[in-house]
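Minutes, structural biology subgroup

Action item carried over from last meeting: produce the structure token record for YbaK/aminoacyl-tRNA synthetase-associated domain-containing protein (Candidatus Entotheonella gemina). EB confirmed the sequence was re-checked against the source entry. Recorded below for completeness.
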Amino acid sequence: MTVLDRLVQRLETRGIPFKLLHHEPVYTSEEAAQVRGTTLASGAKALICKADDRFIMVVMPADRRMASRRMRRHESIRSLRFASREEVAELTGLQPGSIPPFGSLFNLPTWCDHRLAEQSTINFNAGDHSVSISMAYTDYAAEEQPKLGEFAE
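Output recorded by EB:
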């Protein structure tokens, strides 16, 4: 089963409402917001990072960037870096930019910037650069149960 199949099955099994959108391939958050007809801030950007000796998923509004220095200080992390394309592919089977914000699909802890909760609806690529899902932030947070914090600036 593809990541999209696994995610759709999970949401449907739990009765979580969502919308699936097929569109032209997009490779930036700006392109994704444009093709979806949504705000950039409603994009749930999922980044795979290596924090010391473990990989984590960091999710944030797409109009923000990761606050590496703050994360290291507040989370007592000595070394923090983005995963390489090869590491992302090995961990998720996907390419950067196509990863849904569910670290649990890949056995990764999910850390989510608290500002994503300002969006009633979030949008994200769902395992493919040409497929997006739109769903309520509250449903996402209840299902994924991410660690919340100030991870973006």
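Discussion: The mean pLDDT is 96.
Next step: EB to file the record with the rest of the batch.
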